[in-house]
Amino acid sequence: MSDTAANVNAAETEYEPVVGMECHAELLTNSKMFCGCRNEFGGEPNTRCCPVCTGMPGALPVMNIQAVEHVMRTAIALNCSINPHAKFDRKNYYYPDLPKGYQISEYDIPIGVTGWLDIEVNGQPKRIHIRRVHLEEDTGKLFHVAGDESFVDLNRSGVPLMEIVTDFPPDIQSAEEGREYLTRLRSILTYIGVCDGKMEEGSLRCEPNVSVRPVGSNTFGTKTEIKNLNSFRSVYKGIEFETQRQAELLRKGERVVQETRGWNDTRQVTFSQRSKEGEEEYRYFPEPDLVPLHINEDWIERVRASMPELPDARRARFISEFALPPYDAGILTDTRAVADYFEETARLCGDAKTTSNWVMGDLAKLLNASGTEIGASPITPAALAEMIGLITDGTISGKIAKQLIEEMYATGGSPKTIVEEKGWKTIKDSGAVLAAVEKVFAANPNIITDIKVKGLVGKRGFLVGQVMRETQGKADPGEVNRLIDEKLAD
Amino acid sequence: MSELIHLSALDLRDKIANGAVSAREAVTASLQRIEAVESRVRAFITVTGEQALAQADKIDAMRSAGETLPPLAGVPVALKDNMCTRGVLTTAGSKILHNFIPPYNGTVVSRLVESGAISVGKTNLDEFAMGSSTENSGFHTTANPYDLSRVPGGSSGGSAAAVAALETPLALGSDTGGSIRQPASLCGVVGLKPTYGRVSRYGLIAYASSLDQIGPFGRTVKDCALLLNAISGHDPMDSTSTDVPVPDFAATCGESIKGMKIGIPTEYFGAGVSAEVAAAVRTAIAQLTALGAEAEECSLPSTEYALASYYIIAPAECSSNLARFDGVKYGLRSSELAGHIGLTEKSRDEGFGREVKQRIMIGTYTLSAGYYDAYYKRAQQVRTLIRKDFERAFEKYDLLVTPTAPGPAFKVGEKADPLEMKLADICTIPVNMAGLPAISVPCGMVDGLPVGLQIIGKAYDECTLFRLAHAYEQSTGWHKNSPVL
């Protein structure tokens, strides 16, 4: 093991991280995993619970099939095999937030096994192997208050939780790869609608297991597990910090302690939480209150048929079908909501690249500024398509469109109506444009001379700008150019 | 009114239905009997007289209004105190639940209410149904109505004693390794463990989930059939309850048993079974033959491993099932302040009795990493062998007949050795391991104490079981015995 590396060059050894990822995703189901209680975030403490999820004597679990299908969907999306006789087990341990004294989980026969997820870092593709995808129940929450008291809230108890674990030996070898894996995973989970992916609310949690080894070595060092990472950034920073911390320990000839370390987001450091030396004793055994699942091919096919197009496939299709640059296709397929929005708009207006520019540009800015999800955008795909249509048919100029989209975003109004009301239509009337041209020529005799006499044709653009300004941007740019050229030729 | 307590549930039901007796009179008779004998028998932990009378009045009002009465309308019933009853103390015989009032009704309790049966109270048991005498109860020991110095059997000793002492015509018990049949045998009443999955376990405080099953006690076979009909059937709240049709069990009582093939497994007459009990059972078999059944000896070779493997599987499941009693949410909480780990440790130390602690420790040990394969996994393999033994036997026989318990009721305190106590279930445990239905019917008296005959059936074939048991009962009349109290 590398922590015994007591060679003379220890202080100069370069280390690289090896990272295994354990992710927990709260599943988007109507009810909890084993009872009819609503599966919703928050609520007054202990209001979303019943005899089953509070562990009352005599209460029994009943499997939520929607949760099982969510795990099957995930397994399919991650190229896993599905165990036809997946079963549930009890993981026994005492903690006040665990009302039954055991967690119902899957131990040796999980629903999904041996799959993979392809990522790309700096243009380099890499396959991250997945060991297992299983279903378990979430615990309640424990609150410590000042003094000697603690309180338990069981609203979250029994919420279906999916665990996705990468394979050993781990494929992830940098913080960058770790973040990219999580990004892709989150994208898939939200695509297939099994998880809302909100890391800040804890509905997607990621616990990297980090160890380091001398670069080029194929041994494995002692690992630590990082908890409380609640953003992509903290996952990146956490892995990086642990890599450095462990490498420094080894360079000093010290050893890495196997433990769980928390992440302090303010100080950007990990700190020791709980030692994990020695094997943990959970006394797993098959859950006698549940019967094993019988997942046949028909069921798998039904679930497969209900799956939406996955991010990678959609990205490829956006490139081939809409002739989008790979960069655009990548960004637009990052979440299903954005991809759906783009695709609907592009189909309605028939101009994919322009749609892409508006969705990734002005619309994204407006959404970000107000912290709004694209699904809740005040501008519907139909409205955006209509706006793009107005540019294409020359009703408005591109410059006006930038004002128009802001107005549409603020009021939710239809672009045609706003253009009418604001009088933003392109001025097609040659007389009106000509009047503006003449006014600009009259006001700028020196410029005219510079162009006509001195041949400083670069100053022609200034004239165009002045005319547009004179017409509040409404003049048809083609017409403006034509009239200016005519007048200069006089 | 005192003659009402002698009536079978069936007769009482009919009298209430035709107006000869009111539900209030039936419940009052039961409550008066409880009042009269409870100081000696101590079958109950809680008696719910007021609630029972209020429910009786509802039944009587229904009758006056001309409404159709449900099948057990007005019949008093006692519930083992490990079945959750909304608003009524439910202790599982343990100090750790000395103050536990469930916020919900177990499925059998709801079904009983729908059937019109009226619960008059909750009966005593060995703590968490672990024991064969009620001596492990966290509250008191119930007496055998036939000899107050002896135990009623267990763990459903309170229910068996209540029915034997004419406190109620019916009662519910639970059976994990013999906890209905063995006390039925010792108290001279009929007790049935249904097929695993026949009756919902939702609301039954679990001892060993893969073995526990709720079942009826009555003074006649037909009464048990009636009560089983009321509580059977698939329950969406219990994944292990089976979605199979529920036949009219009572209707099969009375059908001929001519030509029925009965196996007599020799292993059930071996060491441990008293000569008197063996003789009583042999006499009963002769009687069955006289009624037209064909009996022959057979072998269930894995029987000798049943007790050992049961005492691996049941404690393993119990160690996990009882983990929820941590002093946090309900039940006993130690007054010592010691942090949350200490809180759980102290509460469990104060709340659980010796036998329960022992089984939790055994179960914790056998499930531990490094021991799981040698114990739990091995025991499950033995369980498969036991099940296969029965399957093979049932290819040839309709039913198997054995003693229910190796001996009659023993003295309170007599079986101080826990191993000796566990041998009381040697004839009943294999049936739970295989998930089969089995009934105990009175088949004689040894020194003034009742002895039971166990009849084991195929899975979901309680009908054949009832047919034979009823035919035997009606031809002998042992069920007419009553203790003198």
Q: What does the secondary structure layout of this molecule look like, with pairings?
A:
The complex is a heterodimer of chains A (490) and B (485).
Chain A: E1 15-26, H1 65-77, E2 81-82, E3 89-92, E4 102-105, E5 112-121, E6 124-137, E7 141-144, E8 150-153, E9 160-166, H2 175-191, E10 204-214, E11 224-227, H3 232-251, E12 259-264, E13 269-275, E14 285-286, H4 297-305, H5 311-322, H6 326-332, H7 336-349, H8 352-370, H9 381-392, H10 398-411, H11 415-422, H12 430-443, H13 445-452, H14 460-470, H15 477-489
Parallel strand pairs in A: 11-12
Antiparallel strand pairs in A: 1-9, 1-10, 2-5, 3-4, 3-14, 5-6, 6-9, 7-8, 10-11, 12-13
Helix pairs in contact in A: 2-3, 5-6, 7-8, 7-9, 9-10, 12-14, 12-15, 14-15
Chain B: H1 9-17, H2 23-41, E1 44-47, H3 49-64, E2 76-80, H4 107-115, E3 118-123, H5 157-164, E4 170-175, H6 181-187, E5 190-193, E6 213-218, H7 221-231, H8 249-252, E7 261-265, H9 275-290, E8 294-298, H10 306-321, H11 339-351, H12 354-366, H13 373-396, E9 399-403, H14 418-422, H15 429-434, E10 438-446, E11 449-457, H16 462-476
Parallel strand pairs in B: 2-3, 2-4, 7-8, 7-9
Antiparallel strand pairs in B: 1-3, 4-6, 5-6, 5-10, 9-11, 10-11
